[in-house]
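Please review this pair:
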Amino acid sequence: MAGSDFRPVYHPAGHDNELRVAVQDLRTGRWVSMARLLERTDRWGLWTQRTQVLAAVAAGSDVVQAWRTEEPDSVAALVMHTRVTVERAVRAHRAGHPRTGELWQEAWNACRDTAGISPADPVPWVCLLALALLDDHRQMDGHRLPPPGRMLPPGPWGILAESDKRDPYNREAYHRMLQFVHAGTSGPLSEAANFAQWAVGCAPPGSAVHVLPLYVRVERYRREHGQERALDLHWVAEDALRDATHALDTWFRYADPRLASPLDLNHLAHALWGAHRFDEAARVFDAIGRYWTTLPWAHRTRDPADRTLAEEVFLQAMSRSMSGRN
């Protein structure tokens, strides 16, 4: 795999073959594969992951609306409509679009309607966590509730609790909450680190929540514009190694690489490689296979927007890890 002719491939579905087929059909304006895939998806964590990926692809077209027209009673189509409206609102906010407020209200209404029609589904609540990021000044009461633990900031804890009732420690829900905490401060990320450690302390073995501290560490150096040497020194520190080893032992050993988040796999490989734990990193690179992600590797380059540079770092890390395995 690590030969000179090997080139990694980015695909949002990663190793999820069925999802890749549905994504390909979506890109050509067809919705039937998506509908049939969601019919077969019977775990909330996988349901959340697949609807998120599908919505990111579908948000630029009317394909979900075409599905709803053909199957107006489909709950899955309603969930995908909610996903798409939320994705469009988030993109508008990111771009500073003048219609952001209107799209936000439309998405918020869709979340509440879907939560009423499909009360066991965590996705409407996960989507409300995504929309909380649009509340830049924390004006909504539900976005500044008291936290459940010490050293945690106020936030949309009630929404997170509703998601937890339906799918405890849902990966996307906790990442959305982490993004909310990140957005609340432009300075040191102590609150984000506290949140990640709090979540890790509660999550059961096998939960992808155990990877959260690695995202906080990458975000810290992104904000501080850390140089490569600083990153090298950071990842060999005792606490960084502890976070990487914890994610390996408490998440990766239980994970099904075919359904794991490609981002989680890449963050863990990056952390273990940075900590010079090459044998363990090689195991994660085996799981990554050909489906890489540009992050976090891009933050090791002089131009994070240049995918070619990120790919070079990824290949160097993979090669070094594979050559160092026992």
Summary: The longest helix spans residues 75-95. The chain has 16 helices and no strands.
